[in-house]
Please model this.
Amino acid sequence: MREVISIHIGQAGVQIGNSCWELYCLEHGILPDGEILENEEKTNSMSTFFSESSQGKYVPRSIFVDLEPTVVDEIRTGVYKKLFHPEQMLTGKEDAANNYARGHYTVGKEIIDVTIDRIRRITDNCESLQGFFIFHSFGGGTGSGFTSLLMEKLSENYGKKSKLEFSIYPAPHISTSVVEPYNSILTTHTHLGQSVAGQSTIF
Model:
């Protein structure tokens, strides 16, 4: 098996993740509660994104992280609430307030250790981990600052494993904060360094 772990960070990453996993389930014939459709055959391709529980349910190989709970709570109470393992939905108590420094150096530091621990638990259940998909924005405080912190930790712990980033860059005409360009510059600087050291690719 060749597994990939998806990490969804901040409001943008979590909302994209919610849509992605809905599509993955439709593609593989998996119901919102993790059960497989009766007429659907089990294939090895499922194990790339899903692990099979002892009850025969399929659980996404994913982590959802946000420094404040609002967006993750929408998944916890939504249609796919039974699909995800509760321990893989991580939230803090206060957001990064569109501030890279809060996401990287202060508020983000409070949740980084538990995030790495949950990622480790998923990797321990992988036979041949190929790498990570990371979904986030470059403009928000969590998407920029916390993602940079997490990328550093992933490089330390998982060396040369590939890290593919699916990133949302800010645009002037739809910007929600005047500091988005600064967050983007700081994040890009960090991630370009990771690209050389840890095979990170930004889409």
